[in-house]
Each structure stands twice: as C-alpha cells, then as structure tokens.
Amino acid sequence: MKSRALLCTAMLMLWVPDARSDPCFDLYQLTDYRHAIEPGIVVDATDTLPRHCAVRGVINRAIQFEVRLPLTDWNGRFLMLGTGGSSGYIADTTFGLGSGFAVASTDTGHQGVGLEYARQPEAALDYAFRGVHLATLTSKAIVRRFYATDISHAYYGGCSNGGRQGLIEATRFPDDYDGVVAVAPAFGPVSDGLPWNLMASRAQAAGPLTADHIRLLDDASRKACDALDGVEDGIINDPRVCTLEHYDPADLLCAEGQDAATCLNAAQLDTVRQHYRGVVDAGGNVISPGIVPGAETAGGWTMWSLPGFTNPETGEPLEQSISEMSVEHRLRDWVYHNPAYDPAAFDLAVNRGDLNRASAVLDVNTADLRRFREQGGKLLLVQGWSDYPVRPGRIIDYLARLEAANGGAARTREFARLFMIPGMGHCGGGPGAHVFDYVSPLVAWVEDGDAPDELVGGRPDGAFTRRHCAFPATAVYRGGDENDAASYACRVPD
User: Which helix (DSSP H) or strand (DSSP E) does residue 255 occupy?
Assistant: First the structure.
C-alpha cells in the first residue's frame, strides 16, 4: 500500500511543471481575493503580429481586462487602450503589439454597449473612473511578473469616452501613466454633453432637419470658406475665420415655391443657428459651445441628431436619435436615478444645480494637473475641428483653464499640448488628413524631451498629407505641392 502511494506521488510529480517553466500559463498564480486571472495562452505569430502571451482576468467580479505581452523584443513599455461610448467591451489589444508594447484594455466593469450598468451603483462608478485605474494596476502587475522586471514607461491612449478616461487618469490617478493621449475627449458628459444634446434634440423637434439639409450646410460652408487659406482642398483650415461675413445660414432661407430639400424654412434656420451658437444662459455665458462651419456631414451631426442610427448590438435602426437617447440616459440614470423621470420636465435654467453630483462622478471637473506634471507626465490632446458630439470650443476652453491652473501658457506647454485637426470628425473621419501616429510623438516627448510642435497626418487613400500644428498655431500654405505637408508651415494667427 505504501509503495503504491509512493508510485502515485512519483507519477503526479512527472505531470507537474516547474513554477517558472511556462511564465505565460502561470500568470494565473497572481489570482487573489482582489482579482481572478486566467492561465495565459501563447498566440503564434502572424504576418503583422509577433508571437505573444495573451491573458484575461476579472477584477472585483466584474471588471474584465485583457493583456498581451510580446514573447520577444518587448520594448519595456506598457500601453493601456481606452474604450469609447458606454464602454462594455475590450479594445483591440493587438494595437501597439507589433511595436513591442505590452498592451491592455478593459470593459470597465460591464458587458455590452447598453446603458443598464448606470443603474447599478458599483458598475456606474467603475465606468466613471475606477475600472481603468484598477485594470491599470493589475495589468502592470502581470507585465512585471511575466518579464520579471519593472516597466520603463507607461502610456495611455483613448478617444471620446476613452479620452475622458485618460484625463480622469491624469487628474485622479496621476501616478498611473507617464504619458496620456486623449483624442476628442468627452470630458464633460454631464456639464457639457447633457445641455448640448438637450438643445439639439429639442431644436430638432421644433425645426427638424433632414440629411439633405445637413448636406446643404456642408456644401454652403465649404463653398464660402474653403479657399480662405489659399488652398481649395475641401477643408476649412481654421473655421474661426469662417464668420457671418463669409457664411451666413440665413442665405439658405427658402424662397417661395423652392424645393424644401434645397433650402431651410424659418424653424429649420433656427435649429441651425442654435447649433452654431451653442447653449448660452440668460447672462450670455456659454454652457456648451456650438459646432463650427465645415464638414457638417462628416462630424456626426446626421448620426447624432437624426433617428435611424443602427444599434451595434441588434443591427436594428433606432427610433430615437442618439441625442435624445443620451438626454434620457443622463437624466434618468445619472442625475435623478429615476428610470421614470420625464426629460421634458428638465429646465436647464431651473435645474442646472441638479447636475452637480453626476458631474462630480463622471466629468473631468478640474484642470489642475500639477501632480501629473510634477512627476513628469505629458499630455497630448487631439481634437477634430468638425466634431459634433465633442465640439472644438470645449477643448480650447479646457486648454485655457489648464494654462490658468498650471502656471500660464509657457509652463503648460512643457507638459500639455493641443492639436486641432482641420476637417476631422469625431475620433477621425472627415475630409481632413486625419490618419497619423499619436503614440510615437508622445513616447519621444516623455523619454527624450522632444516636445511635438507638429504632427503630420495623411488621408486613408494617400491623396495628400498635412502638417498639424500645436495650438494656437495653424498650418499656412507657403507654396509648392498643395498635397504635400512640406508645403505648409506652422504659424500663430495674428
């Protein structure tokens, strides 16, 4: 009997690998009361991706995350990718893998792009700010365990809600990242997004526009202002110069007997004017800035303000516009915690104070980045001029607040820079040169002190390239091939 037990023990020992024989599989050993981590799996190389270790896990029973780690040629860096909209999914963690990064992402604590998570207190807070932070800490621990060494530098990149996540990290958890790229950051979903979408949905109900009308505006603004920069390329380089002197939507008012699809009636003109003006209170203070002229069809106006957008989970067209849905979601789930609340009852002039609590949870409500700056952090902000849901005036105002809170414009430029992209919509798209590398300039800034004064972008079809300048500078044509970025120089407007 004793010999049989010894034999069984010996056989079992043959099947038990050494604790470090498979560092990818053995990542499950980091499992504890805070998080559960699956055994890692090795993924073979492809034409575009290196052989790597992929591991998933769950934090606090709900926050799912994924990490991919190159088996060879790791560059010592960690990259976290944010998620847009309502999150509920893990971003493509193969991005950056081919450049040697260890890459991670998280769904922030719920699955699917629906809005039910906001009615669960813990899930709501995980979405708002905690999920990315906890996934960052856990992912870093996995990277250190796998490579048996520390991370040289940690980077974050995200757009829209993902940009908001990045700014939340820089403000609330400034030790998490050395560098943050925030593209079109939706950093004020309550203080800015709710008033904007409320205005947009009510204006659309009173003076409904069609896709033809928005295309009409696009054509009219381009015709009036495209050539103001000396190059007719379908892009308004700096929409701030496209003033009423050049482009007045009132010129599109219908004449008697005119085809309604080719002009605006009085109610529709009012809708358009409200969109360009933004949300302004009785004292003339801008609560939510408006859109600017240019690429109106590319920035999201049609998708956000008109019904019929396809539900990404069901494939069915939505009966409401995204603006309407956003208003209901913010008011019912975030502001009043009452699924029966009637959005028609909300009066911004009367109820604006009710937004404070939700704003404290969701919004990036401080521009004080001293802690992030003092530990060497760098912030790269990128914004399309033709973005409808996150209008450019919002981030320009944020930069002004950054400068006021962090020692002035010159001091702020040492750690934070904004790039405004002509003709770019929300997170990309549009007629502009919106394809470019965000990460490499940030790495060069953080690690080599090479602060970016410009980014060179191109078109998906390779039609042309453009020089994008650190705000407030803009690219000015100086002669030569209009399709070559080298024919443009960065200058600060007079």
Answer: none
* Residue range 437-467, pLDDT digits in tens: 999 999 999 999 999 999 999 999 999 999 9
Give the confidence band of 6 by pLDDT, cuts at 50, 70, 90.
Answer: very low
pLDDT of residue 91: 98
Q: Whose structure tokens read 């007629």?
A: 431
Q: Are 296 and 229 in contact (CB under 8 A)?
A: no
The whole-angstrom separation of Cα 425 and Cα 218 is 13
Q: Quote the pLDDT of residue 313.
A: 66
Angle between helices 266-277 and 194-206 (to 10 degrees): 170
72 pLDDT above the threshold of 60: yes
Q: Cβ distance 389 to 300 under 8 Å?
A: yes
Q: Which residue from 221, 121, 210, 107 is spatially nearest to 165, judged by alpha carbons?
A: 107
What are the extents of the domains in the chain? 20-151, 192-361
Rounded CA-CA distance 57/266 in Å is 56
User: 250 or 307, which is more confident?
Assistant: 250
Euclidean distance between CA atoms 70 and 43, whole angstroms: 10
**64: Cβ–Cβ under 8 A, 6 or more apart, which residues?**
56, 57, 58, 90, 106, 107, 109, 111
- In the block, tokens 């919002």 appear at 394
Q: What are the backbone dihedrals phi and psi of residue 359, each rounded to the nearest 5 degrees, phi first?
A: -65, -40
CA distance 123 to 179: 27
Separation CA 118–CA 438 (nearest Å): 31
Pick the range with the lowest mean pLDDT from 74-88, 260-274, 303-317: 303-317
- At 312 the pLDDT is 67
Whose CA is closest to 180, among 381, 408, 412?
381
Q: Which residues pair with 253 in a beta bridge?
A: 264
- pLDDT greater than 50 at residue 13: no
Structure tokens at 139: 């992912």
Burial class (CB in 10 A: 0-12, 13-18, 19+), 366: exposed
CA dist 456 and 467 (Å) reads: 5
Tell me how far apart the alpha carbons of residues 42 and 53 are, in angstroms, rounded to a whole number. 5
